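hey m, so remember when u said the C-alpha coordinates were messed up on ur end? i reran from scratch. heres the input so u can diff it against urs
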Amino acid sequence: MKHALLSIAAASALLLAGCGQPAEKTAEAPAGQATETAGGQMAPAFTLASADGQQVSLADFRGKTVVLEWTNEGCPYVKKHYSGAMQALQKEAVADGVVWLTIISSAPGEQGFVEGESAKNWKQRFNAGFTHLLLDPTGATGKAYDAKTTPDMRVIDGEGRIIYAGGIDDKPTNKVEDLEGAKNFVRAALDDHAAGRPVTTAFAQPYGCSIKYADGAEAAPAKG
Protein backbone atom coordinates (compact mmCIF):
# COMPACT_ATOMS: atom_id res chain seq x y z
CA MET A 1 0.00 0.00 0.00
CA LYS A 2 2.81 2.41 0.87
CA HIS A 3 4.41 1.93 -2.57
CA ALA A 4 1.18 2.67 -4.38
CA LEU A 5 0.35 5.65 -2.20
CA LEU A 6 3.81 7.11 -2.71
CA SER A 7 3.21 6.89 -6.45
CA ILE A 8 -0.03 8.79 -5.98
CA ALA A 9 1.83 11.43 -3.98
CA ALA A 10 4.48 11.85 -6.68
CA ALA A 11 1.91 12.19 -9.43
CA SER A 12 -0.42 14.49 -7.53
CA ALA A 13 2.38 16.87 -6.58
CA LEU A 14 2.71 17.68 -10.29
CA LEU A 15 -0.85 18.92 -10.54
CA LEU A 16 -1.77 20.30 -7.12
CA ALA A 17 -3.25 23.78 -7.24
CA GLY A 18 -3.48 25.89 -4.07
CA CYS A 19 -6.72 27.58 -3.10
CA GLY A 20 -5.02 30.90 -2.52
CA GLN A 21 -4.77 31.53 -6.25
CA PRO A 22 -7.48 33.43 -8.16
CA ALA A 23 -10.60 31.47 -9.01
CA GLU A 24 -9.99 31.78 -12.76
CA LYS A 25 -6.57 30.14 -12.48
CA THR A 26 -6.53 26.67 -13.99
CA ALA A 27 -4.11 23.77 -14.06
CA GLU A 28 -2.84 23.04 -17.55
CA ALA A 29 -1.49 19.50 -17.06
CA PRO A 30 -3.82 16.66 -18.09
CA ALA A 31 -5.49 14.74 -15.27
CA GLY A 32 -5.27 11.28 -16.77
CA GLN A 33 -1.53 10.55 -16.79
CA ALA A 34 0.07 8.30 -14.17
CA THR A 35 2.76 5.65 -13.96
CA GLU A 36 1.05 3.31 -11.51
CA THR A 37 -2.37 2.65 -10.10
CA ALA A 38 -3.60 1.80 -6.62
CA GLY A 39 -5.83 -0.94 -7.98
CA GLY A 40 -6.00 -4.01 -5.76
CA GLN A 41 -4.36 -2.41 -2.73
CA MET A 42 -6.19 -2.68 0.59
CA ALA A 43 -7.78 0.51 1.89
CA PRO A 44 -6.45 1.71 5.27
CA ALA A 45 -8.91 1.23 8.13
CA PHE A 46 -10.28 4.32 9.84
CA THR A 47 -12.91 5.50 12.30
CA LEU A 48 -14.04 9.13 12.23
CA ALA A 49 -16.75 11.22 13.84
CA SER A 50 -19.55 12.16 11.50
CA ALA A 51 -21.10 15.62 11.35
CA ASP A 52 -24.03 14.34 13.41
CA GLY A 53 -21.82 12.82 16.11
CA GLN A 54 -21.73 9.16 15.09
CA GLN A 55 -18.53 7.12 15.04
CA VAL A 56 -18.22 5.78 11.50
CA SER A 57 -15.71 3.11 10.48
CA LEU A 58 -14.79 1.87 7.03
CA ALA A 59 -15.28 -1.64 8.43
CA ASP A 60 -18.97 -0.84 8.95
CA PHE A 61 -19.45 -1.10 5.19
CA ARG A 62 -17.68 -4.36 4.46
CA GLY A 63 -19.35 -5.97 1.47
CA LYS A 64 -20.41 -2.64 -0.03
CA THR A 65 -18.80 -0.36 -2.56
CA VAL A 66 -17.55 2.81 -0.86
CA VAL A 67 -16.57 6.16 -2.32
CA LEU A 68 -14.31 8.51 -0.36
CA GLU A 69 -14.39 12.19 -1.34
CA TRP A 70 -12.14 14.84 0.22
CA THR A 71 -13.73 18.27 0.22
CA ASN A 72 -13.26 21.90 1.30
CA GLU A 73 -16.17 24.26 0.74
CA GLY A 74 -13.87 27.26 0.23
CA CYS A 75 -11.96 25.69 -2.65
CA PRO A 76 -12.88 26.95 -6.14
CA TYR A 77 -12.38 23.47 -7.58
CA VAL A 78 -14.87 22.07 -5.08
CA LYS A 79 -17.26 24.92 -5.88
CA LYS A 80 -17.06 23.94 -9.55
CA HIS A 81 -18.14 20.37 -8.84
CA TYR A 82 -20.70 21.42 -6.21
CA SER A 83 -22.49 23.53 -8.79
CA GLY A 84 -24.63 20.41 -9.13
CA ALA A 85 -22.46 17.70 -10.67
CA MET A 86 -21.04 16.28 -7.44
CA GLN A 87 -24.42 16.19 -5.75
CA ALA A 88 -25.94 14.41 -8.75
CA LEU A 89 -23.19 11.79 -8.74
CA GLN A 90 -23.54 11.29 -4.98
CA LYS A 91 -27.28 10.75 -5.23
CA GLU A 92 -26.93 8.46 -8.25
CA ALA A 93 -24.32 6.33 -6.50
CA VAL A 94 -26.20 6.10 -3.20
CA ALA A 95 -29.38 5.13 -5.06
CA ASP A 96 -27.38 2.24 -6.55
CA GLY A 97 -26.36 1.03 -3.08
CA VAL A 98 -22.95 2.71 -2.88
CA VAL A 99 -21.81 4.20 0.44
CA TRP A 100 -20.47 7.73 -0.12
CA LEU A 101 -18.26 9.18 2.61
CA THR A 102 -17.30 12.83 2.23
CA ILE A 103 -14.28 13.74 4.36
CA ILE A 104 -13.03 17.11 5.60
CA SER A 105 -9.37 16.93 6.61
CA SER A 106 -8.90 20.68 7.10
CA ALA A 107 -7.31 21.53 10.45
CA PRO A 108 -8.98 23.88 12.96
CA GLY A 109 -8.54 27.46 11.81
CA GLU A 110 -7.83 26.43 8.23
CA GLN A 111 -9.98 26.90 5.15
CA GLY A 112 -12.78 24.35 4.98
CA PHE A 113 -12.73 23.34 8.66
CA VAL A 114 -16.18 22.87 10.15
CA GLU A 115 -17.56 21.75 13.49
CA GLY A 116 -20.78 21.92 15.48
CA GLU A 117 -23.77 23.37 13.67
CA SER A 118 -21.73 24.22 10.58
CA ALA A 119 -20.90 20.55 10.22
CA LYS A 120 -24.45 19.41 10.98
CA ASN A 121 -26.03 21.62 8.34
CA TRP A 122 -23.31 21.13 5.68
CA LYS A 123 -25.35 18.53 3.78
CA GLN A 124 -28.43 20.73 3.70
CA ARG A 125 -26.49 23.87 2.74
CA PHE A 126 -24.99 22.18 -0.30
CA ASN A 127 -27.92 19.89 -1.15
CA ALA A 128 -25.45 17.02 -0.97
CA GLY A 129 -26.31 13.37 -1.37
CA PHE A 130 -23.51 11.63 0.52
CA THR A 131 -24.10 8.94 3.14
CA HIS A 132 -22.00 10.62 5.85
CA LEU A 133 -19.88 13.76 6.24
CA LEU A 134 -16.80 12.73 8.24
CA LEU A 135 -14.52 15.06 10.18
CA ASP A 136 -10.76 14.45 10.14
CA PRO A 137 -9.30 17.54 11.85
CA THR A 138 -6.01 15.81 12.69
CA GLY A 139 -5.59 14.80 9.06
CA ALA A 140 -4.65 11.25 10.04
CA THR A 141 -7.10 9.60 7.67
CA GLY A 142 -6.33 11.92 4.80
CA LYS A 143 -2.63 11.24 5.17
CA ALA A 144 -3.21 7.48 5.46
CA TYR A 145 -4.76 7.67 2.00
CA ASP A 146 -2.19 10.22 0.82
CA ALA A 147 -5.03 12.55 -0.13
CA LYS A 148 -3.56 15.75 -1.54
CA THR A 149 -6.32 17.84 -3.02
CA THR A 150 -9.94 18.84 -2.79
CA PRO A 151 -11.49 17.06 -4.44
CA ASP A 152 -9.53 13.79 -4.21
CA MET A 153 -11.37 10.52 -4.70
CA ARG A 154 -11.14 6.82 -3.81
CA VAL A 155 -13.43 3.95 -4.77
CA ILE A 156 -13.22 0.85 -2.56
CA ASP A 157 -14.82 -2.48 -3.39
CA GLY A 158 -16.71 -4.76 -1.00
CA GLU A 159 -13.53 -6.61 -0.06
CA GLY A 160 -11.83 -3.40 1.02
CA ARG A 161 -9.61 -2.97 -2.04
CA ILE A 162 -9.00 0.38 -3.70
CA ILE A 163 -10.19 0.11 -7.28
CA TYR A 164 -9.91 3.81 -8.15
CA ALA A 165 -7.78 6.64 -6.76
CA GLY A 166 -7.19 10.21 -7.84
CA GLY A 167 -8.88 13.04 -9.68
CA ILE A 168 -12.60 13.09 -10.28
CA ASP A 169 -12.37 13.80 -14.01
CA ASP A 170 -10.13 14.71 -16.93
CA LYS A 171 -10.75 18.49 -16.92
CA PRO A 172 -8.35 19.91 -14.28
CA THR A 173 -9.83 23.40 -14.07
CA ASN A 174 -12.11 25.30 -11.72
CA LYS A 175 -14.44 26.41 -14.51
CA VAL A 176 -18.02 25.17 -14.28
CA GLU A 177 -18.36 25.14 -18.06
CA ASP A 178 -15.64 22.47 -18.25
CA LEU A 179 -17.94 19.95 -16.56
CA GLU A 180 -19.64 19.50 -19.92
CA GLY A 181 -17.92 16.76 -21.85
CA ALA A 182 -15.59 15.79 -18.98
CA LYS A 183 -14.91 12.11 -18.38
CA ASN A 184 -15.85 11.41 -14.77
CA PHE A 185 -13.47 8.71 -13.58
CA VAL A 186 -15.48 7.95 -10.43
CA ARG A 187 -18.69 7.32 -12.35
CA ALA A 188 -16.76 5.19 -14.86
CA ALA A 189 -15.14 3.14 -12.07
CA LEU A 190 -18.50 2.55 -10.39
CA ASP A 191 -20.05 1.52 -13.70
CA ASP A 192 -17.19 -0.86 -14.50
CA HIS A 193 -17.32 -2.43 -11.07
CA ALA A 194 -21.11 -2.83 -11.08
CA ALA A 195 -20.87 -4.56 -14.46
CA GLY A 196 -18.19 -6.95 -13.21
CA ARG A 197 -15.52 -5.43 -15.44
CA PRO A 198 -12.00 -4.42 -14.39
CA VAL A 199 -11.84 -0.66 -13.82
CA THR A 200 -10.50 0.83 -17.05
CA THR A 201 -8.90 3.86 -15.40
CA ALA A 202 -7.79 2.96 -11.88
CA PHE A 203 -5.72 6.10 -11.26
CA ALA A 204 -5.76 9.68 -12.51
CA GLN A 205 -3.79 12.64 -11.26
CA PRO A 206 -5.81 14.52 -8.64
CA TYR A 207 -6.22 18.26 -9.04
CA GLY A 208 -7.61 21.05 -6.91
CA CYS A 209 -6.71 22.93 -3.73
CA SER A 210 -4.14 21.51 -1.36
CA ILE A 211 -5.67 19.91 1.73
CA LYS A 212 -5.08 22.18 4.73
CA TYR A 213 -3.53 19.64 7.07
CA ALA A 214 -2.80 20.42 10.71
CA ASP A 215 0.97 20.59 10.32
CA GLY A 216 0.81 22.57 7.10
CA ALA A 217 2.39 19.74 5.13
CA GLU A 218 1.11 20.42 1.65
CA ALA A 219 2.51 19.60 -1.75
CA ALA A 220 3.56 22.55 -3.86
CA PRO A 221 0.96 23.74 -6.37
CA ALA A 222 1.46 22.90 -10.01
CA LYS A 223 2.38 25.61 -12.45
CA GLY A 224 -0.66 26.50 -14.50
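this time it looks ok to me. The chain is about 25% helix and 20% strand. if urs says something different then somethings off w ur setup not the seq
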